[in-house]
Design brief:
The chain contains two helices and ten strands. The chain is mostly beta strands. A five-stranded antiparallel β-sheet has the order 4-9-8-7-6. Strands 1-2-5 form a three-stranded antiparallel β-sheet, with no helix packed on it.
Length: 149
Amino acid sequence: MDHATNDNAKSANLTKHQGSCHCGAIRFEVTADLSGGATRCNCTICTKLGSLGITVAPEAVRCLTPEADLASYEWGGKVARRYFCRHCGIHTFSRGFLAELGGAFASVNVNALDDIDPAQLKVAYWDGRHDNWMAGMRDAPWPIFTAAA
C-alpha cells in the first residue's frame, strides 16, 4: 500500500473526490489514488476520532470553504494541524511537515469523502500509540495496551 506523500501524486489512478463535514459548512476536494486503501492509527487522537486516512501531497487537497472559517487543532510537536468544522466538529483534513513522510503532506479523513464508501477500502494499521512507526503498517490493528515490560 502506497502512503508516502509524494508517491500518491505519481499514481496513474488519481481521481478527484469531494468531501465535506456533517453539516456541509466545510467543503473540500482531494485528488488521490484510493486503490491501495487507507490507514488507521491507534494513537490517542486517531483512536478518539475514529479517523480513516490517506496521505497525499499538500497540493492534492483544495479547501472550497475559506480556511478562515475552519477551526484547527495542533498539539505536542505540532507536526500537523487538523482542520475541523466549527459547527458540527467533523475533522476533514490536516496539513503538516514530517521528514519521514517526505516533508510537507496533507492527510484526509476518508470518512469525510462524500463519494466513497469507506467500508469498501482495504485498511492497513499503524502503531502510533507506541511511536512504533518504523514497524510499518500491517493488516491487523495494533493493540492499544501492551504488557508491562
